[in-house]
Amino acid sequence: MENGIKERNSNGLMEKRNWWKEDVVYQIYPKSFYDSDNDGGGDIKGVTQKLPYLEELGITLLWICPIFTSPMVDNGYDISDYQGIQPEFGSMADFEELLEEAKKRNISIILDLVVNHSSDEHGWFKQALRDSESKYRDYYIFKEGKDGNPPNNWRSIFGGSVWEQVPAEDNLYYFHTFDKRQPDLNWENSALREEIYAMINWWLEKGIAGFRIDSITFIKKDQDYGDVPADGADGLASVKHKGRNRPGIADFLAELNQKTFNKYPCVSVGEAPGVTYDEYDKYIGEGGYFNMIFDFHYADIDVENGSEWFRKTDWKPKQLKELIFESQNAIQKVGWGANFLENHDQPRSISKYIRDAAYQNEIGAKALGTLFFFLRGTPYIYQGQEIGMKNFKRDTITDFNDVSSLDNYPRAMLEGFTAEESLAFVNQRSRDNGRTPFQWDATKNAGFNEGTEPWLKLVGDHEEVNAADQVNDPDSIFSFYKEMIQIRNHSPFKDTLIYGAFRPLETPDDVIGYGRIGDEVIQILVNMSNKETAVEKVSGAILLNNYETIEQSGTQSLLKPYQAIVIRKDEENV
Ligand code: NOJ
């Protein structure tokens, strides 16, 4: 396939062919994937050793969360050397071996690019603190306080002020969008930007396939650094108001693209929260800053504000449907999407989206898989999703590791919730839910290692939920995912499922239905409720079904609770 050739599909849509549109991505949180040296934490060699499993599943691209040198305050999203490998993950030689071994299996690798901030242990920041005359002072954001208070009232994403006082200097503060040990880099400084571009190109020259770009919409702040009306009981206002996707960011992002990604045959996927649909064109349109961005509009359907878990919503399947349709339609107009159910910042999808606990099992997992996997865009599978891993339940806050869980707990109490209620919010939403050790088998520590206490407590259900039991079971969630990948990437319907247009279907409120239109019409129907629901009679070849049959009744078909089907429509009946 030639890259970038535009073709008109039978729906009349011009679609450009690109290799990364055909990929199926698997996201690895290396600390929790496989602990090859039995020290309690996962590592790069662990990923290499598990490549046969990933090949069996059928994925083609790995996104590996940060493996760079780091004090690990935010598990690697705090980098102290962008060109070094964190020793607990291994060495550069281990990474090169992984690249090579993956390539032999036709799997390419993208890394996580964290350039909104560094660690406070980065050499630049240490020099900036040590010497006010150093050029590195301007690599970060330092400001004077106001009347004994921080320079403004912005709240960081992980809670508390975005400002931290510089220890040796009265009335001087530095800025951090996230934790105080993650000082923001000052993108206004062109020398800093050039250093970042050189680093990115160094990695691309090494042969990686591209980057997932972390928190990139935070790199531009309103330069007035003005106060904002408080939006919480702590008297502060979220940094999002004046520090996310702000005017002027276009110049930084266009330059980033021109000086790095655009020069290589690589893929870039932006974590770009806060971008509205009418701006998607600039982000992912022709000549946009990135090839695709993650859309969080429906990932956060269960909470009013993605980072404040005590603001829960009582969402209904109809809303989820509307959000998915809106997202797909908006993306289809301008570019390409990055579809996901889970990632390392989200709870497990069956625990979040399947509201009846009786279906938080293989039926629910397969229904959700079907729902997201065939949307137009590149699918991203998060480790453990393919075997139906679920949320845990912790009895005490001390069992949590995630910085944002440790912040949300006291914040919920400050907002008036009891300790018990606050713990329940954290249990439900904690980022640790997706970070528990991967459940390889039913043995001690779920086969994550040879027995050393893992860095984070297991979910505890690995006797029922584990990869070893599922790999050879044709009815397992793993086999279902494998089949979805086969159908999307290797069946006669490949072109329609990858490049075909997205079209919403009219169905009852609780059923989410859509079509993919190419040389044939493929329909996806997912009952997102625990009630049997009638839909217009389905006709055509059933390509996938999470139940054994589909019940037909007169002019209708009856979808069982959380039943999901994929149908190739008969030609005379589209
Ligand atoms: C987004 C990442 O996905 C998250 O895990 C991290 O804590 C923040 N960015 C800060 O880097």
From TrEMBL:
The membrane-spanning stretches of this chain are none
Q: Which SMART domains match?
A: Aamy (SM00642)
Q: Which UniProt keywords apply?
A: Glycosidase, Hydrolase
Q: For this chain's UniProt record, which GO biological process terms are given?
A: oligosaccharide catabolic process
Q: Does the keyword RNA-binding apply?
A: no
* Signal peptide as annotated in the record: none
Question: Which GO terms label this protein's molecular function in UniProt?
Answer: alpha-amylase activity
UniProt keyword DNA-binding present = no
Query: Sorted alphabetically, which CDD domains does this protein's record hold?
Result: AmyAc_SI_OligoGlu_DGase
Q: Which domain of life is it from?
A: Bacteria
Q: Which InterPro entries match?
A: GH (IPR017853), GH13_cat_dom (IPR006047), Glyco_hydro_b (IPR013780), O16G_dom_2 (IPR045857)
Identify the residues that the record assigns to the Glycosyl hydrolase family 13 catalytic domain, covering every copy: 27-435
Q: Member of which family?
A: Belongs to the glycosyl hydrolase 13 family.
**What is the protein name for this chain?**
Glycosyl hydrolase family 13 catalytic domain-containing protein
Organism from which the protein derives? Trichococcus palustris
